[in-house]
């Protein structure tokens, strides 16, 4: 069975460069509408602060059959936190997010930066799965178990999906079960914003069009669209 996991990191617009939330207001509803129309499920890693600020939008995530995961409380980097700060951040985020979804088991750290010795704090908070590692960065990790946590890497970086689909689709299909990630703000036109070129190129309609092409192309090839916890249940770990 071929499968893909679409994940969405739900946060402010391109943090820490901006503090606006156009992605939450304009991008996130577009993504949810697209997934509903295509009948597919995804995993949304949401920060505690965005869940507090946009409760109606976050309610839609579990209501429409998606997985709600945790993306930290404020999108602060865990590799820059002391142990106690990391613990408090996870606790605060968990408290807010569990108001929307009692079964909160998946986590992704902001900037895909999560110290290995902090995995025990995820365990303490009841998380089972972590997607804070990137298969496209050295040492190119694969899925594995560390302590009690199953770590499932992201396959390719989000800006890659804003290149022409003819470029990224063949590469995506080379991976047996890719995990892709996008952000709500990528589906809002960011071309005039003071952010890095790789963050703003082809944002807005172009990005949404690419995601539609990706979904329809993979559906035509009978891919299954699985949430992170669904695929973790299917994979075998040594
Ligand atoms: Zn993020």
From TrEMBL:
Q: Which InterPro entries match?
A: Glyco_hydro/deAcase_b/a-brl, NODB_dom, PuuE_HpPgdA-like
List the source organism.
Methanosarcina baikalica
Question: Which Gene3D superfamilies does the annotation name?
Answer: Glycoside hydrolase/deacetylase
Taxonomy of origin reads: Archaea, Methanobacteriati, Methanobacteriota, Stenosarchaea group, Methanomicrobia
One Pfam family of this protein, by short name? Polysacc_deac_1
This one is known as: Polysaccharide deacetylase family protein
PANTHER family per the UniProt record, alphabetical: POLYSACCHARIDE DEACETYLASE FAMILY PROTEIN (AFU_ORTHOLOGUE AFUA_6G05030) (PTHR47561)
Q: Which PROSITE patterns match?
A: NODB
Question: What sequence ranges are listed for the domain NodB homology?
Answer: 2-238
């Amino acid at each position: 069975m071929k499968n893909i996991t679409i994940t969405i990191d739900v946060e402010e617009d391109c943090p820490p460069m901006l503090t606006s939330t156009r992605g939450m207001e304009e991008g996130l509803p577009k993504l949810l509408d697209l997934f509903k129309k295509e009948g597919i499920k995804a995993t949304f890693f949401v920060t505690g602060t965005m869940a507090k600020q946009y409760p109606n939008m976050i309610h839609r995530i579990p209501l429409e059959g998606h997985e709600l995961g945790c993306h930290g409380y404020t999108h602060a980097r865990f590799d820059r936190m002391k142990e106690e700060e990391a613990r408090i951040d996870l606790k605060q985020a968990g408290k807010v997010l569990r108001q929307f979804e009692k079964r909160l088991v998946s986590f992704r750290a902001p900037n895909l930066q999560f110290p290995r010795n902090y995995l025990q704090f995820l365990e303490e908070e009841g998380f089972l799965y972590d997607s804070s590692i990137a298969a496209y960065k050295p040492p190119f990790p694969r899925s594995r178990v560390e302590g009690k946590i199953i770590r499932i890497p992201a396959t390719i970086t989000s800006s890659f999906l804003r290149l022409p689909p003819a470029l990224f689709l063949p590469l995506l299909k080379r991976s047996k079960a890719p995990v892709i990630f996008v952000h709500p703000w990528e589906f809002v036109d960011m071309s005039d914003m003071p952010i890095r070129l790789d963050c703003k190129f082809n944002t807005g309609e172009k990005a949404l069009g690419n995601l539609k092409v990706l979904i329809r192309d993979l559906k035509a090839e009978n891919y299954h669209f699985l949430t992170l916890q669904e695929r973790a249940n299917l994979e075998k770990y040594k």
